[in-house]
Amino acid sequence: MQRVHFIAIGGTGMGSLAGLLKARGWEVSGSDKALYPPMSTALEEWGISVTLGFDPDNVLGAKPDLVVIGNAVGPDNPEAKAAIDAGLPYKSFSDALYELAMVGKHSVVVAGTHGKTSVTSLLSFLLEQTGKDPSFLVGGIIPHFGGSFREGAGEHFVVEGDEYDTAFFDKTPKFIHYHPETLLLTSVEFDHADIYRDLDHVKESFRSLVDNMPQHGAILAAVDYEDVRDVLTGGRAQVIGYGVAGNGPANWRARDIETNAQGTHFKLMHAGRFVASVNSPLFGLHNVENVVGALAALDSLGVSIKDAVEALPRFSGVKRRMEVRGEERGLTVLDDFAHHPTAVRETLTATIAAYPDRRVIAVFEPRSNTSRRAVFQKDYVDAFTGAARVEVLEVSDDPIYSATGDDFERLSAERLCQDMRSRNQHSYAFGSVEAIIEDILREYKQGDVVLVMSNGDFDNIHERLLAALRELPAA
Fold first, then answer.
1. Of 390, 322, 321, nearest to 351 (Cα)?
2. CA nearest 312: which of 128, 101, 453?
3. Which of 15, 77, 291, 360 has its Cα between 20 and 30 A from that of 128?
């Protein structure tokens, strides 16, 4: 196989696989309707040719040996239709990843509604630091590795497993295709309202994942959550529970959690016995839980906990996870991928812990097919608790994809902000990014932290805000 073309290459998974194959020396091309950082920057750095817009000539001109079709593509996509009609070999992203990169490796899959990218990155880093030379593919850029993938000589391949469907021609969840031998399950909540009817429908997918695990496999599960415990019944693989400070059936726990300027300190316990003092550079209880889960997984893989704990303080995080984009005029601008209300709440809480003496201004773009629906209208009200000021972009009028056929109401940013104001929280809806930037320039104080949350590029609000601050007249 010499030439591969990716349809909808701009997704973090698709772009990362394209980069991995390019690094092998294959000829790689791709197309997408739009690109944004960090994947747009990464594709350019990797020297991958990308066409904006979909055109049958992209697959019919110089015919590729394989076409990889992303799950953002529908059956009416002109490139996908042309490739299939012409009889070109094609695969879903999930099958291509497994068959071209993972076969023959020990598959370590991180699944769950939240924390997949962070935990996959952390596991990959700690495996590398402890001499295991892993391969990985992650939906984010890991600064330590300078990218989102790695092909190592070790036995492990670490990947984040998404519950979203695989492709328009394959409606099974993506994580089923990775055939995990080790599974780390962080959480189970309702999400992806465009393809799942309700929480029970989501649980069906996770049960399939658990039920398909081999008997010799291991499942590291956040068992403090009832919905996680609920999907574990019936599986053959060994279940190893982890948690934070609860009293449930977890084998691994964090105790005596303390936060300081460098991060979070806690005692790692196993079966009620002290194992190690852990210094994590990450903030927030959700990241304590992520670290405990990662350490438990490493132990199950035969990695020394002592060596992993010693390496942990060197972990530099993941882009778009509380990433500092810049500081100007005493204002710090952070970028985060949070868009589900649970992720918004935990990210905001972690930011307040990381900057305890500073006001936090939360700026939110409801952009995903789920967050633009009213399904979490009330949940977002609680999610922003603690922010000194909340600024929400009005939901666009663009069509919202739905595979369920259900009628739904759109999220009202104005109603959300009204509900927060009824709790005496300064909250405002805006119709444009320009209006948000203007409001911040009027209202910010020295030392404020602006936490920008979106699963998209948010019209480059981070850099535009920093540029506007630089242009302010000197005080």
1. 322
2. 128
3. 15
Structure-block tokens of residue 270: 């196993």
- 337-376 pLDDT, tens digit each: 889 999 999 999 999 999 999 999 999 999 888 898 999 9
Give pLDDT, residue 183: 98
- Please, which residues bridge with residue 393 across strands? 430
Q: Which residue has the higher pLDDT, 64 or 62?
A: 64
pTM for the full model?
Answer: 0.90
Query: Is 362 within 8 Å of 384 (Cβ atoms)?
Result: yes
Whether residue 451 sits in one domain with residue 332: yes
Per-residue CA distances from 133 to 99, 112, 144 (Å): 20, 25, 14
Tokens of 91: 């695969």
Nearest to 360 by CA among 372, 341, 380, 345: 345
Same domain, residue pair 161 and 310? yes
Cis peptide before 473 (omega within 30 of 0): no
Name the DSSP class of 370: T
**Cα dihedral 268, 236, 195, 117 in deg (nearest 10):** 30
